[in-house]
Automatic annotation (TrEMBL):
Modified residues (N6-(pyridoxal phosphate)lysine): K319
Domain of life: Eukaryota
Cofactor: pyridoxal 5'-phosphate
InterPro entries: Aromatic_deC, PyrdxlP-dep_de-COase, PyrdxlP-dep_Trfase, PyrdxlP-dep_Trfase_major, PyrdxlP-dep_Trfase_small, Pyridoxal-P_BS
GO biological process, one term: amino acid metabolic process
GO CC terms of this entry: cytoplasm
Protein name: Tyrosine decarboxylase
Keyword Lyase tagged: yes
Pfam families assigned to the protein according to its UniProt record, in alphabetical order: Pyridoxal_deC (PF00282)
C-alpha cells in the first residue's frame, strides 16, 4: 500500500471511531440498552419456540461474509440479535424447557457475572487479585457447610474447595491427582495397570477423563446396572469387578460414584461402595452435578451419607443452583494431591506471597492457568436470597415434579419408567397399554413402546411448545422431564402434560 493510500485510510479510520474501547459513559449508555434487551427477552421468553426451529447453516445465510470496516451502533447490533440470533437459540430459561438438566439462572447471578466481566481480573494466583482467591475460599466453605460436608473437605479443616468450569474438569483434575499419587508409589512404568471404575449410568466425562489421563482404554470399567436395583451401582458388582481385575494383575485406581445420574437421576449408594474401595486405597470421587444442589435441604442430605469416606466431591451450581454457566464446585480432602499434579512454577509467576505457602494459588488446582472471578456470582446469590429461600426454590421444583409424576400415573397409556428422587420424571408409553394390544410378543410390545415414545418426543420438540430429552436405560427409551428452570410454575407443568397427551392422541389417530 502506498503512503498516500495509507494516510487516506488512517484519516478515514480516525473519523469512523465513535468511541474508545472502554469509555465509562458510553458503557453506561450501551449497558442500559443491553439490560433492557435482556429484561424484555425474559419477559417474552415463553412466547418463543422452546427448541430452536432453524436448519443447520441458517446464520451464514443471514450475516455478511466479512466483518464491518467501520463501527456500527449498538442499537443496530441489538436489532440483529433479535432478528437473527434469537431464532437460533434453544431457550434454556424458558418455563417450558425440561430437557437435559436445568441450567437455571437468577438476577443475582446475572449481576454477579456482570461484576466478574466488569472487573475482568485474571486470578491465577493470590497476588494477581487477592479478593478473587479469598472470596472463593470463603464461599466454598459457606457452600460446604450448607451441604454439611465433613470438616475435612473445607479450608477450615485440612481440605478446600475450588470453582471449576464443568464436571468434566473436576473429574479430570481428581483422576490426574489419583493417578500420580498411585504412580509415585508403584512407578510410572505401571500406568498401563491402572483401572478406573464407574457404572453404565456414569456420565461420559469419566471415560473422557480416563482417556486424557492416559488410562488404557481396556482398563475402563462401566459396571452394569439393572432395573431391579434402580440402575444404581451396587457394591457387590463393584467388588466382583475389582476381584477380577486384581486376579489379572491390574491395580484399582479410581471410582466415580454418582448422586443423580444423567439418564434417570439414580443415586449410587456411597456407604457400601466406600466400604469396598477403602480396602484397596481407591480414590473415590462423587459426582453430584445435578442433584448436589438439593442436598442443601435437610430432607435430601441423606443421599450424601457416606461422603466422609470419599476423597472428592463436586456439584454444578450452574445446573440447579440458580447460577449462570460456568460454575462447578469441587472439594477435595487433600489439596496437596491436586497441587503436586497440576502446579507449574515459572519464574515470571514467582512472588513473595506464593513463596510463603500461606496463600492459595488456584492455578495449581485446575487444568488451565487463567481463571475468572467466578466466586462473585455465588457470593451475590447466597447473599441476595439466603439459604432459606434457596431451599424453598428447590423444593418448589420437586413439588412440581411430584405433580407431573401423578399426572403420568393417572393416564394408563403411560408409565413412570424409573423412581423419582429429585425434580426429574422419566416416563414412556406403556408396553402393557391397550394401545399395543395387537402385539402378542412381550419383546415386540417393548420395541413398539420404544418406537412410539421416540416419535412422541420428536413431535413435542418439533412443536416448539416444550423441550425434553431422552435416555435409554435397560433397553427402555424414556422421556426425561427435568424441572428446574427458574421461571417454571405449576401451570407450565400442567400445560406441558396436555401437550404430551395431545401429541399422543394425534400419533394414535394417524
Amino acid at each position: 500500500m502506498g503512503s498516500i493510500e495509507f494516510e487516506h485510510e488512517a484519516e478515514n479510520n480516525s473519523i469512523s471511531v465513535i468511541n474508545q474501547p472502554l469509555d465509562p459513559e458510553e458503557f453506561r449508555r450501551q449497558g442500559h440498552l443491553v439490560i433492557d434487551f435482556i429484561a424484555d427477552y425474559y419477559k417474552n421468553v415463553e412466547k418463543y419456540p422452546v427448541r430452536s426451529q432453524v436448519e443447520p447453516g441458517y446464520l451464514c445465510k443471514r450475516l455478511p461474509e466479512s466483518a464491518p470496516y467501520n463501527p456500527e451502533p449498538i442499537e443496530t447490533i441489538l436489532q440483529d440479535v433479535q432478528q437473527h440470533i434469537v431464532p437460533g437459540i434453544t431457550h434454556w430459561q424458558s418455563p417450558n424447557y425440561f430437557a437435559y438438566y436445568p441450567n437455571s439462572g437468577s438476577t443475582a447471578s446475572f449481576l454477579g457475572e456482570m461484576l466478574c466481566s466488569g472487573f475482568n481480573v485474571v486470578g491465577f494466583n493470590w497476588i494477581s487479585s487477592p479478593a478473587a482467591t479469598e472470596l472463593e475460599n470463603i464461599v466454598m466453605d459457606w457452600l460446604g457447610e450448607m451441604l454439611e460436608l465433613p470438616k475435612s473437605f473445607l479450608f477450615s479443616g485440612n481440605g478446600g474447595g475450588v470453582i471449576q468450569g464443568t464436571t468434566c474438569e473436576a473429574i479430570l483434575c481428581t483422576l490426574t491427582a489419583a493417578r500420580d499419587q498411585t504412580l509415585r508409589k508403584i512407578g510410572t512404568e505401571n500406568i498401563g495397570k491402572l483401572v478406573v471404575y464407574g457404572s453404565d449410568q456414569t456420565h461420559s466425562a469419566l471415560q473422557k477423563a480416563a482417556h486424557i489421563a492416559g488410562i488404557d482404554a481396556k482398563n475402563f470399567r462401566a459396571v452394569k446396572t439393572s432395573k431391579s436395583s434402580s440402575f444404581c451401582l451396587s457394591a457387590e458388582a463393584l467388588q466382583a469387578t475389582i476381584n477380577s481385575d486384581i486376579e489379572d494383575g491390574l491395580i484399582p485406581l479410581f471410582l466415580c460414584a454418582t448422586i443423580g445420574t444423567t439418564g434417570i437421576a439414580a443415586v449410587d449408594p456411597l456407604q457400601p461402595l466406600c466400604e469396598v474401595t477403602k480396602r484397596y486405597g481407591i480414590w473415590v470421587h462423587i459426582d453430584a452435578a445435578y442433584a448436589g444442589s438439593a442436598c442443601i435441604c435437610p430432607e435430601f442430605r441423606h443421599f450424601l451419607d457416606g461422603i466422609e469416606n470419599a476423597d472428592s466431591f463436586s456439584f454444578n451450581a450452574h445446573k440447579w443452583f440458580f447460577t449462570t454457566l460456568d460454575c462447578c464446585c469441587l472439594w477435595v480432602k487433600n489439596p496437596s494431591a491436586l497441587i503436586k499434579s497440576l502446579s507449574t512454577n515459572p519464574e515470571y509467576l514467582r512472588n513473595k506471597a506464593s513463596d510463603t505457602k500461606k496463600v492459595v494459588d488456584y492455578k495449581d488446582w485446575q487444568i488451565t492457568l487463567s481463571r475468572r472471578f467466578r466466586a462473585l456470582k455465588l457470593w451475590l446469590l447466597l447473599r441476595s436470597y439466603g439459604v432459606g429461600n434457596l431451599r424453598n426454590f428447590l423444593r418448589s421444583h420437586v413439588k412440581m415434579a411430584k405433580v407431573f409424576e401423578e399426572l403420568v400415573r393417572s393416564d394408563k397409556r403411560f408409565e413412570v419408567a424409573a423412581p423419582r428422587n429429585f425434580s426429574m420424571v422419566c416416563f414412556k408409553v406403556s408396553a402393557s397399554s391397550s394401545l399395543l394390544k395387537h402385539e402378542n410378543d412381550d419383546n415386540e410390545k417393548e420395541k413398539k413402546s420404544n418406537e412410539v415414545t421416540e416419535t412422541l418426543l420428536e413431535k413435542i420438540n418439533a412443536s416448539g411448545k416444550a423441550c425434553m430429552t431422552h435416555a435409554v436405560v435397560g433397553g427402555m427409551y424414556v422421556i426425561r422431564v427435568s424441572i428446574g428452570a427458574s421461571l417454571t410454575e405449576e401451570k407450565h407443568v400442567v400445560g406441558t402434560w396436555k401437550v404430551i397427551q395431545q401429541h399422543l392422541d394425534a400419533i394414535l389417530s394417524s
